[in-house]
Specification:
The protein has 254 residues and is mainly alpha-helical. It has helices at 4-12, 18-23, 30-61, 65-85, 121-132, 147-161, 175-180, 182-191, 204-222, 229-241, and strands at 89-95, 101-107, 115-116, 141-142, 145-146. The strands form 2 sheets. Strands 1-2-3 form a 3-stranded antiparallel sheet, with helices on both faces. A hairpin with a 2-residue loop joins strand 4 (141-142) and strand 5. It starts with a helix and ends in a 13-residue tail after the last helix.
Length: 254
């Protein structure tokens, strides 16, 4: 399903071009429609974040550590995009010629125009999040770098830098998880309300994605998003198949 916010904006533009996007101003009638579209997108992206987390857990339990870190990164990525969308901020691509499109950020403030961004979607997501929400607690550091940058480096090492996956050797960022066990770690990270784990390099590979997910879900609750029973049933079935007890879908889905 395409992003609803993008579908709405492109329908409102007098022409699908970068100049048309820059000149467009959101009307009072369009603002609530865009907000509704972004909330729907936020729901979908949060669900993708949850599925990414569950897939990562299955990978960790099977010693597929390399792809697990990729999926944990995507849990962060989808969670942050969901969090922004439920707060009225989205990323839309506007065609600029027959084969290319330019990225724009949009928000639901009346009379605001889309802003052209630079880079690919992943870079734009983190840059936009830091620019729009500079005081968000998720912008903490692991060592000397932002937690999201730390997660990005782990993911890029898997995808681009290492020609061979080390599996089943446990990578250093999963040592503490391997020592504690996934079940115990998950329970601790879900229950944590003081960021005791999310920015600790011994725990952050799993704890930071979970913190992103928790913040995304809280924002969805704030705008009244409720996942349907089929979504809850599927997440509960995934948790059961992964052998995870004490964690239920209502802790991951609104």
């Amino acid at each position: 399903m395409p992003h609803r916010a993008a579908t709405s904006l492109l329908a409102w533009l007098p022409a699908q071009s970068a100049p048309a996007a820059k000149a467009f101003q959101l009307s009072a009638a369009q603002a609530p429609l865009l907000a509704s579209a972004l909330n729907a997108d936020a729901e979908d992206m949060h669900y993708s974040a949850v599925i990414s987390l569950l897939d990562a857990i299955n990978g960790i339990n099977s010693a597929y550590f390399s792809w697990a870190i990729v999926k944990l990164y995507y849990c962060c990525f989808y969670s942050i995009r969901s969090l922004m969308a439920s707060n009225g901020i989205g990323i839309v691509y506007v065609p600029i010629n027959a084969t290319a499109a330019a990225p724009f950020s949009v928000n639901t403030q009346i009379s605001m125009s889309p802003r052209q961004e630079k880079g690919v979607t992943h870079k734009i997501t983190w840059t936009l999040f830091e620019r729009i929400f500079p005081n968000n607690p998720l912008l903490g550091d692991i060592g000397l770098e932002r937690a999201y940058a730390w997660m990005t480096k782990l993911r890029e090492s898997v995808n681009y830098k290492n020609p061979r996956f080390p599996d089943p050797v446990v990578p250093s960022h999963f040592n503490e998880l391997d020592r504690r066990g996934v079940q115990v770690a998950l329970n601790a990270y879900i229950a944590d309300t003081a960021f005791a784990y999310a920015f600790d390099a011994d725990h952050a590979a799993l704890a930071f994605p979970i913190e992103c997910l928790k913040r995304s879900m809280a924002s969805l609750v704030g705008v009244g998003v409720v996942f349907d029973q089929a979504d809850h049933d599927h997440v509960d079935a995934c948790l059961a198949s992964a052998g995870i007890t004490g964690l239920i879908s209502s802790q991951l889905l609104a």
